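HOLO CASE FILE
Compound: magnesium ion
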Amino acid sequence: MSALLELAGIGISFGGLRAVDDLSFTVGEGQIVALIGPNGAGKTTVFNMITGVYRPNGGKILWYNHDITGFAPHRIARLGIMRTFQTIRLFSDMSVFENVRAGCHLRTRQHWWQGLAGLPSQRREEAEIADRTSDILKRLDLETVADERAIALPYGVQRRVELARTLIANPKLVILDEPAAGLNDRESAKLNETIFGIRDSGITVLLVEHDMNVVMNVTDHIVVINFGRKIAEGNAATIRNNQQVIEAYLGRDDDETEEAA
Ligand SMILES: Nc1ncnc2c1ncn2[C@@H]1O[C@H](COP(=O)(O)OP(=O)(O)O)[C@@H](O)[C@H]1O
Ligand SMILES: [Mg+2]
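Model generated. Tokens follow.
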């Protein structure tokens, strides 16, 4: 297994708060890796550092062994690192099809208006993009709602639209921030299938998730953080039986591990 992404001792502070501290872990090519931990542990902040939203003030981020620490978000996206957000961000006036198609331009430098000039090569490219959009919609079971206004659809469907929009940019790594949040049991079981499907299409997956049905059943590797520091890592069986993890996170019945169901 070769390392696709490696975090080597990264950290960041907000004022006096050390939100992430000396964190190291590796995401192997083709793996499904979960980052878990209590609310406020620093998970989203880790994603924000990987995607260039925040610059770590310690450590390095390596992509195929190349240092990408401090790269701007658009450069990170062009490398093939794409993300979804903890709260859904869809274009409110667009259909499902249009929302997903718009994802094409997240990785390339092309803008929507460049397709309007009408040159044959541009028309061909637009046709290819439309084909790819249809293809992704089919893969994520969104064909029947392609023409509906995205934000009028049920929450679980909107989540899939967001995922489709990320996948159409042809990423090498997708980073999913709480993809099961707000899904019902049936939708969360379906999400497991979707995540396996993404990996089988050659895309590596890094996710933050509270829903243990997703975390324990789909991941190859789990990294646990608490107060910004790594407290354990390993496969599902190892993590489930780790005393420190049970005390800090799994054993508590007052957090969102239940809420996501
Ligand atoms: N931009 C920011 N400014 C100040 N504090 C922040 C900022 N982003 C995150 N934090 C703080 O960093 C800690 C980790 O937050 P976050 O990464 O969102 O946690 P998680 O995703 O694990 O719930 C929290 O205490 C949060 O309040
Ligand atoms: Mg978060």
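CASE NOTES: Residues 94-171 form one domain. Confidence is low (pLDDT under 50) at residues 254-261.
CLOSED: yes
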